[in-house]
Amino acid sequence: xxxxxSFSTETSQRYAKAIFELAQExxxxxxxxxxxxxxxxxxxxxxxxxxxxxxxxxxxxxxxxVIKKISELMNFTKYFKDFLSLLVEKRRIxxxxxxxxxxLNFSSIKKGKLKASLISSKKLSNxxxxxxxxxxxxxxxxxxxxxxxxxxxxxxxxxxxxxxxxIDTSIKNKLRKYEQIMLEN
Length: 185
Hints:
By secondary structure, this protein is an alpha+beta fold.
């Protein structure tokens, strides 16, 4: 592990790996993955829930009651319910979002899928997006799931990041390079 990783990142990855391995060993990986995605949607869409999770003054008992109730209402698997209770008991529940995202990353890697980001200067049609995705997937030899955004500030072109590989063909980037060259001369 890198020395530059924060405590929260390192801890989150350890907990995510633990639930990932448990779900995989018990053949519950797909079910737990669905549970994780549902809870992540709740976390991202409900600011009160996010505040409740992040608030260090929330009592242990309140957190446990709420987490158990949410687990029941959302019909989570036994493994995921127990895992969430463990996070509360160990006072690691405030790392919830990082843990859930790390879990999804482990799951994607296991399934041979890569996560990538694509930012274009104009909105791509569904057909254009599918073509880019399938072309890159075939070149890399692995399925790629893109986080796609449009950024008008790029003027033209696109920016793409797959793992540590960054490709920036935007006009904004080219103008910045020309500006730098002109300033150096």
